[in-house]
Amino acid sequence: MFPFPVYWPDFFTAVIYNWLPLLKTDKYKQIIISSLQHLVKNKKIELNAFVIMNTHIHIIWQALPGFTPQQVQHIFMKYTGQQIKLELQKDNPELLEKCRVNKPDRKYQIWKRESLSIELFTPTVFYQKLEYVHYNPVVAGICEYPEEYYYSSANFYKNSTDPFNMVTHFIG
Fold first, then answer.
1. CATH architecture, domain 10-159
2. Could you read off the pLDDT of 78-92 as tens digits, one per residue?
3. Against a cut of 0.90, is the pTM above it?
């Protein structure tokens, strides 16, 4: 018996509130990268794949012992939302106003509620989602080949290059 539950890898998608292109700016993409690096470094997740698009992100990660997938998602969403909000307050208050909500517990909302999280029970499903993650920028017309897009793990799988030093190759 394991002292902690072992979780399957998760395919996780989060969308910016109102599909605003907040992540178009590299500074805001870097907030996502820093948060993922922190989660990996502090052994909260194993990160298998990611892509950061202008309006949304796709991640394949696995919660490590001591953490549930829900805890990891909460930590990630709360931190990145707060950091993006703080940067928008300084850099682009007009854009931040587009994130204003009429909620009793918050003034602004960066991430859309109800993120998607799917457990990947088999290697076949894992590889389907991996391809989906990596081909997102190609389908969006940003690049011709997945490995050309910098804010993605595609180059890691194609050429073993990980400029962010945070991805673990899935061996299923």
1. 2-Layer Sandwich (3.30)
2. 999 999 999 999 999
3. yes
